[in-house]
Give the backbone structure.
Amino acid sequence: MTAPGLTTNRAPFIEEVRGKGEIYIGQPYELYSEENQDTWRRLFARIKPKWQKYANPKFMEGVNNLAMDPNAVPKLDDINKFLCPLSGFSAKAVSGYVPAFLFFDCLRNRAFPTTITIRDGKNLDYLPEPDIFHDVAGHVPMHTDKLFADVLVRFGEVAHTAAEMVADIPDEHERVRRVESILKAMARFFWFTIEFGLMKRSGGGLCVYGSGLLSSCGEIEHCMESPEVQRFPFQLEWVINQYFEIHHYQPLLFVVDSFDHLFEEVDRLEAWMKDGKLNNVSPGEPHANEADLKSFLHAGASSVKA
């Protein structure tokens, strides 16, 4: 019988640390099985040609700057030795899901919550939750670019502003409702940019910078080549009111002009929030779970006490 190693949904180590309530953990590299290592090799080998064809040039620079080994699951300590001097960011190992405010607060402090498990080698194509390939191979190369890294920090600052704003609402029911709407808007913005964003190429055409696309061998090509995909210029009013579903290739994507443009849109997101324009966004996915709501409400209450 194959050792479970650190396979997603089959890792005793993760069950143990979650049982202790630990979110931020170490990476017990010795627990990766040969099956885990083989899964990484296969994932990397089949997607690299797609990166070379479709990925944002800054992403490819990041892959090279991180000296990412195509034959072995990365050690986060090694990744961080290359990453930190470039943008101040680091990959921070976590035991699984991180409540929304804590996640954004990590970004504000230039730390990226990073899953350490890896998907089952029998199911390379689809994983409903993040794994180390999605997080390290999909997200982290973009974090080597200072402009992009600053976008993430700015997004974390917007989350802080949100928590402080809702803390001033005296009525509890309205406070929860407002948090839910703002969270929905922020999640949609993050989804259609950081996770599934497209960008104009300087010489014409489009390229991919969203990690959900960059970590999917099938979808990275589909999003660029399929006539079924709608690709619209980024419009904030559309993005914050557009629901999404995670269990299939995305039929609708948004295109930014540059990372400077993306940073400006995060600024505008915060301005709209302060003006009350995120208080009643359209219903539908994603739905904020109890842990996400509590994380914002608790952070807001703490800011008032401070």
Q: What stands out?
A: Residues 12-305 form a domain with the Phenylalanine Hydroxylase fold (CATH 1.10.800.10). Residues 151 and 166 are 23 Å apart (CA to CA).
